[in-house]
Write a structure and sequence with these properties.
Elements lengths: L1 H25 L1 E2 L2 E2 L6 H10 L19 E4 L3 E8 L2 E9 L3 E7 L6 E7 L5 E8 L2 E7 L1
Antiparallel strand pairs: 1-2, 3-4, 4-5, 6-7, 7-8, 8-9
Length: about 140
């Protein structure tokens, strides 16, 4: 029995030693990866060889449409965009304790979304375009 325990301990130590050796060969120690701190000259050399990315220009947007505008209200948020004097609701999301009751997303001269609270009166958000920009007002 004593020989069996000694054999087990020797095997466990050999397996542990082999695992430590393999981790060392792979470049990772027992405590994780080995890090290398760059010097100022190394950082400057890396930055000098880095390439810059091309900036996206506004002309990449399709003509005739404007970027959506986020409109916030107590009942929720709406993203709307204008194409001339026509407004389109791109998305709408109720605030906490509200739900969406009715939506008229457009495109139209006026778009509407009704936010209904769990308790109380609903909030109707009417959105139109003024100078190509969505504007909102609340109505009943």
């Amino acid at each position: 029995m004593k020989k069996l325990v000694v054999a087990w301990v020797v095997t466990a130590l050999a397996a542990t030693g082999a695992a430590v050796a393999v981790l060392g060969l792979l470049g990772n120690g027992l405590t994780g990866t080995v890090s290398h701190v760059l010097s100022r000259d190394d950082v400057r050399a890396a930055l000098a060889t880095a390439t810059t990315r091309a900036a996206v220009t506004a002309s990449a947007a399709p003509s005739g449409t404007s970027q959506g505008r986020l409109i916030r209200s107590a009942g929720g948020t709406v993203i709307a965009s204008c194409d001339g004097d026509l407004v389109t609701l791109r998305s709408w999301s109720p605030a906490q304790d509200y739900s969406v009751d009715e939506v008229e997303p457009g495109p139209a001269r006026e778009a509407k979304v009704e936010f209904e609270p769990d308790e109380g009166e609903e909030l109707e958000l009417k959105i139109t375009c003024a100078g190509g920009v969505p504007v909102s007002r609340t109505g009943g």
